[in-house]
Amino acid sequence: MHGSKSAGLRLAALFVIGIIAASCAQATDGSVGSYTEARPGADPASDPARMGIATRSCEVAENETTIEAASASAGYHLLAPHDALADAASAGSILGIWSCGGGEFEMRFKSGITLLQEANSISDPAKAWEGLAKQDPGDTSVGIVQGQPAALIDPATSTGGALGSVTVVIGRTIVWVEGDGQISISDLVRVADSLGMV
User: Fold this and answer.
1) Strand locations in 61-163 (E)
2) Rounded distance, CA 55 to CA 148, Å?
3) Backbone angles phi, psi at 196, to 5 degrees
4) Is the separation of the CB atoms in 122 and 132 below 8 Å?
5) Sign of the dihedral through C-alpha 38, 43, 49, 52
6) How far apart are CA 164 and CA 154, in angstroms?
7) Which of helix, strand or coil describes residue 78?
């Protein structure tokens, strides 16, 4: 598990995600990259790039995995969405699953949704999300997903060009459901509400 310093850095970086994502979603070579993945082999406790700041994508062939292999190696309950916009059980919906190092996994869907998850290290998510919303009320609000408090970043009301996201802790897993700037916050919440154990 990550230390509280890592969790604090991730919370502080949540509002940066949407701002950076707009400029980092398309790599200069034309390939679609992700902006929050860890560099393969990076130490998550000491790598600030893993906290939501643009880094090289982990979506490379040697990191690709299956949902079964990811679930077996995660060390926590891997979650998967089952929604029309993101259905891990549908080959027509999912583009791939990657192991990003440090126990983080990424699932990318044809709709533009990306799901990132890892073992949770935030002791009081409700307090963390409330603090984040107070720090950045223009982009972040607090909502409820599966009966748990969640940090919501609405792309329609963002003052910083955020792509939209829902961050929630379910059991021992922290999950980020991230959009593409066009997917509404209500759709992102619906996808997060559809998460279930693999």
Assistant:
1) 64-65, 79-80, 94-101, 104-109, 114-119, 140-145, 148-153
2) 30
3) -140, 160
4) no
5) positive
6) 5
7) coil
Q: In what order do the strands lie in the sheet with 114-119?
A: 64-65, 94-101, 104-109, 114-119, 173-178, 165-170, 148-153, 140-145
Looking at the chain, the number of H-run helices and the number of E-run strands are 4, 10
The answer to whether the CB of 185 falls within 8 A of the CB of 164 is yes
Spatial distance between the Cα atoms of 55 and 50, rounded to a whole number of angstroms: 8
Which structure tokens are listed for 129? 């999300």
Tokens 């700041």 correspond to 53
What Rg, from alpha-carbon coordinates, does the chain have? 15
pLDDT of residue 109: 97
Which of left, alpha, beta for 49 (phi over 0: left; psi -120 to 50: alpha)?
Answer: alpha
pLDDT (tens digit per residue) in 158-174: 888 899 999 999 999 99
pTM to 2 decimal places: 0.74
Topology, domain 59-197? Protein Transport Mog1p; Chain A (3.40.1000)
Per the DSSP assignment, residues forming a β-bridge with 196 are: 80
The C-alpha atoms of residue 75 and residue 173 are separated, in whole angstroms, by 10
